[in-house]
Amino acid sequence: MKVFAPAKVNLGLRVLGTRADGFHALDSIVVPLGFGDDVELERASATALETVDGGVGLGALPEDAERNLAVRAARLLERAAGRPLPTRIRIVKRIPLGGGLGGGSTDAAAVLRGMNDLWGLGLSRGRLCALGAELGSDVPLFVLDGTVRMTGRGETVERLPMAGAKPLWLVLANDGTHCPTPQVYKAWDAGRPAAPPAAGACGAANPISPSAHPPRHAPPGLTKGGELWDTLCFFLRMGGPSDVAGAVVNDLSAPCLGLFPGVARTAEALRAAGCRGVTLCGSGATVFGLVGSRAEGEGVLAHPALAGCWRACAQTLPDGVMAAHGPLTPIVMVRIHVGQPCSV
Description:
Layout: E1 2-18, E2 24-43, E3 48-53, H1 69-81, E4 87-93, H2 103-118, H3 125-135, H4 139-144, E5 148-152, E6 156-159, E7 169-174, H5 181-190, H6 227-238, H7 241-247, E8 249-250, H8 253-259, H9 261-272, E9 276-280, E10 287-291, H10 294-301, E11 310-315, H11 321-325
């Protein structure tokens, strides 16, 4: 079975405060991309992981495969099923590691969804989301698919109706800077308002309204009441790249760009190349900007200011990967052993 594991962008990301469990409470609109990793799954005698460089320069990977989120997802599914599910996992990596695009989380979600079908477990999407939340904050949104509103620490997800929404083109760029997520959040903490949110207000069951803390760098006119997300989602359904670009916001952009000059230079390079709504992906280091077409995006990729950066042009998939690429695809795999007869 082959499963497409999409990258994601946070078109809107609000940080609402620190929860009692130490995590930051988020309110985010997340959209999958038509760019990502390929995850191949095959029943086997033992669970094994193979990672193939699809052009991102993986370098040295951890020797202990059991620490990989994809393998941890397989083990979690075994515990949920109450039996061994030996699976060969092969991942072709195209998403940069640690770039804010959800590369590890999307692979884990692909394993959960794919192995659920491969082994006929029949677990609901809600159950898979709950399992994904045990692995990491971003995993449930990839399990759910489509345009998602993510709240709590990321484990509470709601799929937003986007039927008929047109895909948008954007350009992604990453100069290779390592942006430790705790460091970025610490910088946000240092610049947060003096009065913290009320106790319990940041919990997963009761996320703060987007109007409670207007983004420090939100576009004018889009922060009245609870209209910020309504406006963004309306533009996703009915507008164009310039409309969406005016509603894009990420509370982590300012602290990250302040900490890491390389990321700030990448953002400025995208603006200079003509991108609109330039902002951070997650907590960095990848930056993205919207363009009007694929041809315009390919022109941005060739801009001299982006030389030396990893970069890609991709479409958003507002109505989900399943809508764009169809259901999970079983593949007939035939092994031919030299010297032995073979029939299909």
